[in-house]
Records
---
Amino acid sequence: MAARRRPISEINVVPYIDVMLVLLVIFMATAPLMTQGVDVDLPNTDSKPLSNEQDDPLVVSVDDEGRIFVNTGMPRPGQEGTRVTIFSLADQAEKIIGARPDIAVYVRGDQAIAYGEIINVMTVLQRAGAQSVGLITDPMDTIE
């Protein structure tokens, strides 16, 4: 009687690893393209540009209707972040700042919005633990 062979019960995982590596490369290439922002009409002023040394700052945007949006990373025009209320902003900012105490915090406020609205947002951010809160403006058009 001939000896019976036992079936091999191992799974070849090499093709799965190849697929996972391809997916990893795709996600790494597309992640920087997924930044978000809110289109606001920023006031123009003669100020220094922000340094690019800071990774993913916390940017809170207030549009001309008073809606508040939270972004991590510098926003791009035409893209919206996560919309929040002034009350939920405190919770979200506290979680983000608690996880990264050294995070840079900026406020982008539309020039048509009341000054008091921006101050309310800045106060909430400072109570959430932000060391300092910066304001983002558009560069002033210079005529030479």
---
Amino acid sequence: MKIGLEVHVALPTKSKLFCACSADADEPNSSICPICMGFPGAKPMLNEAAVESALGIAKALNCRINSRISFVRKAYFYPDLPKSYQITQTDGAIGSSGTVRIGKKRVRIRRVQIEEDPAQIVRDGALTAIDFNRSGTPLVEIVTEPDITSETELREFIESLRSMLYYLGVDINKEIKADLNISVSETRVEVKNVTGIKSLIEAMRFEIERQNESIAAGEEIARETRGYNEKTKVTQTLREKETDEEYGYIYEPDLAVFDISGMKCAEAVYVADAAEALVKGTDVKARTVREIIMFDRESLCQIKKFMPKYSLRSIIHGIQRFKKYGSGKSPEDNHLDRIISLVEQGKEISRETVNSIESGKMVKVEYAKSLMKS
């Protein structure tokens, strides 16, 4: 069994990929213009912030970075694509030949490319409507090689990727969609637009079981594109799988070749490596630290700050107690300092303790005690 992924991530920009329209709008069809609507004669203008964000992702995935990037037109007809082509990348993609480490294994990254999102099709019974607010939203597509061979590896890859994106400033609360390419035999079947780890796992389980049953019955596996129904938890045939030739790729004549050599971008944080470095010389397991800092940059900063003063175990215990009993906001440094100090003294940290420290009552009590002793 082999699994490859095509993960689509919305880039954290204020405007769309090729126009000045806002990338966030609530009212349907309120953030649109001739460019993202695909009107004849409208010329795209590349969003530099989107390229910087994509560059950070490509570097974080250990890709070979192309100093010169270009765009192509991927032609296909669908109601959410008014131009009848999508502007994306192929040979001129921003990054290629990368890797992601999950445990002792490395998953190869074939390509990281920038592309525009189509519009959103909204179905309500017999009614079908299109919201063009999403049309032209900047995306990065991360294409892996078929290196994932189990449910555990799929889960670990997605979790590692989401953590990396979080530290690069990507809003991981937005939908991160993925296409699953699953091969039980020699034939690859694509499952389109699956959202969330839970759905990815369920879609993978069903599709592997379906293909195994077909093979056992002596049936051929069709090379096709399937959709995943989250309610019924089954995959369903959508269409035959397109080939690259059918997309009729041509270079985008309205966009130049862009030189990105020297462009600055955010630095990646690898939580697995960070956790290993923090536990070195301690009796704390790297897994414990990794779980705390995976989606919490504030906790990572606090651990690094207080480690010279307190033991790692006490810092972790203090952070965990604040997360459990605190106000829900990040604690002030002096508050966390007091909590960790009490942990170091062997004191039990309760909700009342944390609330007292946050409200300043603990400080007043300690000051009164000091006066009584003097």
---
Amino acid sequence: MGDPGHAAAVDYGPEEQAMRAYCEEGAQRAAALGNRGPIRFGADGRIHRDILDAYWRCGFYVFEGVLKADELADIEADIQDILERLPVRRGAPVDRKGRPALGADLEATTLYWARPLGDPFGGTELAGGRHPVKMFEPKAAADAPEEVVYLILGSVQFSEAVLRAYGHPHLLAVAAAVNGDDFAPFNEGIFIKEPGRGASVAWHQDGLTHWNSPDWDQGSHGFNFMAQLYGCTPANGVWVVPGSHKTGKADIRAIVAAAGTERLPDAVPIVCAPGDVAITNRQVVHGSFANTSRDWRVTLNFGFHRRKSVLGVLGGGLHNAPAVYDAARIEERSRALGFAIDARRQRFPDEIPYVYQPHAGKTFHWDAAAKASLKDYNLLDLSI
């Protein structure tokens, strides 16, 4: 995928050897955690207790082999089309073929740009200032563009294959096991880490709303699924500090200062094969380094909340304007999930579709009209 002319690894600079050693040691620490394997169900038909115990212990879990070869091929074709339709530069109305660019007719912000190998959020007040320390920014190749797209939000309106993955019955069963049968959607996105260009994401914890709530706990700000098209490695993947979702708001600036480096000594990489899907608690301290490797990472993010974490709550932030989330808004935002389940049913008729409890008695049919109705659906994202 992509242009092989820029697929060469980038020299990380004087600390290249230290970074390589850090990646190797981190992979060993990750392998020892015991938090990976296929999605398994217990005798009660629910997600196996061992999986949930490992998830809550570590703050993440890797589900192996969730997306099969035929589904990955569908996703890859759609991702290639999405990349072809990106604007030629930030704000441009057309793609490189002169066609209307992806997202050019939308009200919601869907495309996020960064300098190649840059860190667009670290050390800034963006996103509520939750990325307090800037990551190391290696020097990109001389022929790299001025900016690249590293994140696409509202992704299910751009790809039926991504929409179908969103409706995966086993993943939705996990969502119910973690957040309750009446779980609510959060947002969806595609992270793109091009070889030699992919931006870093500075260390942070997601969530702004519930840190000081009297009933705060380890799951108050929800989780993200991260489905991997090509897999991910220590060099291009997300790193997490296991267990940090349990201890409240972290002083990341102090943690980095104590370590003397942004290579946090307790962090581990999420390592996946193609088709693996990681679940990551949004409260865990996590981030990723600039992708100086030769490997692409394309990650489909699907976020979910407990209903009680969003119902009646004043939300806002990076994903939308401040608003109180009432039942009508949650219901409207959940339409995308209803369409996802039906789109998947049409593509994979041998599967048993997931039955989403809040949609009991309702019918959703994926067709051209439904697709048109998803335009700008992410203006209703439930960001907390």
